[in-house]
Amino acid sequence: MFNFAGRATGWVKGVASNAATSEELVAYHSTRLHQAGRWRAVLWRWRWVGYALVILGVFQAIVSALAATHPAQLEIVVAARDLSAGQELTARDLKLISVPASAAPPQYLPQIDDALAQHVVAAIPAGAPILRGQLLGDEFLASAPPGTVIAAVPLADTGGLQLLQVGNQVDLYAPPDEFSSSATATLVAAGISIVGAYTEPGQSTLLTEQPGTAVFYLALPDFYVADIVGQAALAPLHAVLSGPKPG
What we know:
With 247 residues, the protein is an alpha+beta fold. It contains four helices and nine strands, in the order H-H-E-E-H-E-E-E-E-E-E-H-E. Helix 1 (4-49) runs antiparallel to helix 2. Mean pLDDT is 75; it is low at 1-49.
């Protein structure tokens, strides 16, 4: 006698099993795409304002999620301690860690020697990966937003430079000419983004001690470049905060 009930039960179980397998495959591929998408989104934001803390959180989440699957590993360079903008990197600032190959971020460094004596352009928290675009070099200088160029601009230190951070926007003013009767500064450019910072080491002699000089890298719109460079060649510009660090 044909066992219709038994066949029907088996068919239902098979459909359910196939559906569960399909859902698992969809979930797996969605997870992989989501991980890749998170890196692209995070790196795009950091590229302009240095969101190293966001990068660190996403990086740790991806590494933890993938560790349970025992994937192939590779070594990347991370910060051994908190790093400040403009800091020159030494062996004590860096360490190697093993991570799943699929979790390695773009522009990662495979060897500590790749970062030694380099300067970071933004603060990096301990444990965050060191990326080529975070170092003062060709990758950083080539990362200017469309319609801008990245340039080092000397800023006058009137006691507030320590408040400036990567991600701030500033208005730039030229001081009045020393022979001018006017005491009014001239607005040269408004809403300029700080994308990097560097401190030139000071010099000490037996008689004098010259402190370090802060140099800021700004994303200059093409139509402002000539005015800013020309004015900065005459005297350091004054920076006034015009916008908070984007959140």
